[in-house]
Design a protein that fits this description.
mainly alpha; two-stranded antiparallel ribbon; disordered C terminus
């Protein structure tokens, strides 16, 4: 019976007319309300972040579609043909094809030898002169 008596005393213990158990219960309810508020605030910020990322994905998808359409327009054979003719280019004549015998004549010209630039010599200070670095350090 001592355990039952101890539990009864805990429930009957009062601080300024309020039972101790009720004070603990109110503190636990307040802690739960605060934790739910924090969880909802975190969920709202994550929801805003997700919405922002979804907007970026949509915008990037639109940009990809526009770029694909632009690439398709730029790669149109008729447009490329008009540009090449405007630049003075044309199809290769069938009679201008190279044969095995003419391949050595078509060999690339070797690159010229690189030019080496020799830097002028830097005059050295006399042996009795103090180093400049020592003056800077002081």
């Amino acid at each position: 019976m001592s355990a039952v008596g101890a539990i009864k005393r805990v429930f009957d213990w009062k601080i300024r007319g309020v039972r101790w158990v009720e004070i603990i219960g109110l503190m636990l309810v307040a802690a739960m309300i605060f934790s739910v508020y924090l969880a909802k605030a975190a969920a709202a910020s994550e929801s805003a972040r997700i919405a922002s990322l979804e907007r970026q994905i949509t915008q990037n998808g639109q940009r990809v579609r526009l770029l694909r359409a632009e690439a398709a327009r730029l790669e149109q054979p008729g447009r490329l043909e008009a540009l090449s003719r405007g630049a003075g280019l044309g199809p290769v004549d069938v009679h201008r094809q190279a044969t095995e015998a003419s391949l050595p004549d078509l060999a690339p010209i070797p690159d010229p030898e690189p030019v080496v630039i020799v830097s002028p010599t830097v005059p050295t200070a006399p042996a009795d002169a103090e180093p400049v670095a020592a003056e800077v350090a002081q």
